[in-house]
Amino acid sequence: MAKRKHKAPKRKASWLVNTILAIICIIWFIPTLGLLISSVRPAADILQTGWWTVFPHRQWATEEQVKLPKDTDLRQPITVNGQTFSDDQLKAGVMQGDKRLVWENRRSRTVDVQDKKWSGMTLNFTTQNYETVLGGKQYKITQPDGTVKTEQGSGMGRSFWNTIAVVIPSTVIPIFIASFAAYAFAWLKFKGRRFFFVIVIALLVVPLQVALIPILRDYTALGLNGTYFGIWLAHTAFGLPLITYFMYNSISQLPRDLFESAYMDGATNFTIFSKLILPLSVPALASISIFQFLWVWNDYLVSLIFLGSQPEVQVLSMNIANMVGSRGSDWHLLTAAAFVSMLTPLAVFFALQKYFVRGLLGGSIKG
Amino acid sequence: MKRKLKKSSTMSLMMVLLFSVVMSACGGTTSNTATPEPAATGTDTTATATTGADMIKTAKVPAGSELEKALKGEYKGTKVTMYGPFVDADEQKFNASIKAFEDQTGIDIAYEGSKEFEATINVRVNGGNAPDIADFPQPGLLEGFANSGKVVDVSSFMDESYLKEQYKDSWLDMAKMKGEGGKELTAGVWARSSVKSLVWYNKKAFADAGYEVPKTWDEMMALTEQIAKDGDPAWSIGIESGTATGWPATDWIEDIMLRTTTPENYDKWLTGELPFTDPIVKNAVKKMSDIWFNKDYVYGGRSSIVTTNFGDSIQPLFTDPPKAWFNRQAGFIVSFIPEGVTADEYDWFPFPSIDEQYGTPAMISGDIYAMFNDRPEVRAVMEFFTTAESLQSWIQSGGVTPPMNGTPDDWFANDQERRMSQFVQEAKTIRFDGSDLMPSSVGAGTFWKGMTDYVSGTASLDEAMAEIQSGFKKQ
């Protein structure tokens, strides 16, 4: 009896939690679904109707048309089927009984009489957007001798590999350095340890934008502009404070006895680090990897400044931004491009997902 | 259970990875096969080579200039970096138009395009990483660099008489800026311009309806009223353009200003000397509102102006039957005309004269190429850009009006493009797009925003004008 009483509120609570979670999921899922549907619709369709109209829905369908006299004055009340309406009413659509009256063509003075009907699923889908995004656009260029040649633009393939070349070292290098630093800050005793740690924490609040011009000057002097090495360094430096702090939180919570016994057994600091710390902080490493990976993958500003947009080094985010054209006429390609660029981060996330939650919780429970 | 979970997550990872690799690989192969395409067709390369040789004949190359040396191949193997705002199709057209020059001289013009040009050129130049040549679509932006002495004076190696031969005086005047210490310099050379005072219409539908092209503002208003009576809104207007929303409205005001007041007043207006709150400017805005705020004249009514993209606003002209009849926009709008509409089906007329004494001025915009590093091969490239040949294939592909003299008529893609160039050449008054010359706090700031507020109805005329004028204090 007592047990039952105890269980009831718990079930209620989990029901509530699940509902809230479901709602949050739907809120997050709907825009993504819209993006996906838009990405497979033809550009002309996107311009005319929203993505949700591909699903069956009730809409006004024309049953018959009424032709008014050609000389009807549109600024006076207009008589249709014995009732008078204003022009504005006919523009927006007005009810006459259970039918709806709306202008079909004002110039020819035609009014549609409409009824609500179910429309089926629209299946007018195309892979054109994806083909253009991946294979490159085609440009018609007239040659000096008058012939028209079609140039094939480059697709996302090249910038995809460029991005990989930027992202992997930019994720591995700072995490590697920060783990060493975090171990030192957490467990080694040296002079000024607190002081240096405070400096690292303080750097968290410095916006990276203020560093752009000074660093660019140094890079120019060193010839690092537009090189992969330069951008690895930049991402490493900008990522270090947060990663160090994050790793410190996780490493400093390992039980002290562990190190003491290892030390007694004659382990050096390096052995302790590589044999004990690293395996124990895999969840933290995984979750901070996801953070850093996503940040660098989606980065636009840092690569814009230090890498530039020459095709040999151009990263995905820049490639996508340029895809819409100088005057933004090809915006319909963005949906498809967004999906293609999402694939890799998704793959990384799912691969490291089970560590992710553990890592997030890792710092929250003090032992 | 745990094992199973692990298995399924590895599976999903594999799938997604495989998918992305396949996707990128297929992207890679298509672009790979595409790259050798231009070179693979033997006929193509010979064609460009001969036109390259032709270039020496057609373009007037000053004797002893760096360009002459370059054409002889003296700077073979050098590289000139260039940075500018055109990307995508424009970038392709630019690269195609310089290809013959690159082939002949062996100079590699490495063009880098970015949509964030305006924001990043400052960082680049101040960071000591200036490109050899930068392409400024807004002379106002270049002026800052000229003032601080960062730009190389092109008249230091190009003769005044040579420049006069290549450009009309009004173009050269617009390139003159104050350098360090107030010394006047020619800050760059003009390439690629666009005519702005154009009203586009659907030629075929226009003829079918029996309308005539209006020559004056009054005729245009009468026709607008006529079209409204016939049952259609005459104008399709959209000023939405992302973060630059409002700029098409500023173009309207500038065009009306040129037609309702003197060019001198226009120039004063750009510097803030003639304030936006002046009756002259307000009168121009009211003229615009006569059309814009009349629900019978605008497709979708006033409220849709702010939310319609400027590029999409030309679409209603080409539906069948047309939903609207006029769209006032620069020559580049042809790239937004729906596919399948051929050049015979559309046309333009000049934004008509309002007051006879001011005529029908041409408002233009253009890109000025400025030079940041002084090396012989950079000079040669700059000299090349003063020739119409540097734009040849771009003119032939359409969408650009050459600012330099001596473009053969048969280069133009169609009659409309040729007439645009003629319109500029013959116009008595030529002025540059005002918002591009105003300080950017106004021209790319409060002017855009103030007009948007006014059109959407959140600000009254007086409030909007005061708001725009306040931008001059911020600079």
Automatic annotation (TrEMBL), chain A:
Keyword Cytoplasm in record: no
An example Gene Ontology biological process: transmembrane transport
Topological relation to the membrane, as annotated: Multi-pass membrane protein
Gene3D superfamilies linked to this entry: MetI-like
Domain ABC transmembrane type-1: 160-352
Membrane-spanning parts: 15-37, 164-188, 195-216, 228-248, 276-297, 331-352
Gene Ontology cellular-component annotations: plasma membrane
Keyword terms, alphabetized: Cell membrane, Membrane, Transmembrane, Transmembrane helix, Transport
Cellular compartment(s): Cell membrane
UniProt cross-references to InterPro entries, sorted A to Z: MetI-like, MetI-like_sf
Pfam families linked: BPD_transp_1 (PF00528)
Family, as annotated: Belongs to the binding-protein-dependent transport system permease family.
Protein name: Alpha-glucoside transport system permease protein AglG
UniProt source species: Paenibacillus nuruki
Organism lineage string: Bacteria, Bacillati, Bacillota, Bacilli, Bacillales
TrEMBL record, chain B:
Signal peptide as annotated in the record: 1-25
InterPro entries named in the record: Bact_solute-bd_prot1
Alphabetized UniProt keyword annotations: Signal, Transport
Stretches that traverse the bilayer: none
Family of this protein: Belongs to the bacterial solute-binding protein 1 family.
Name of the protein in question: Alpha-glucosides-binding periplasmic protein AglE
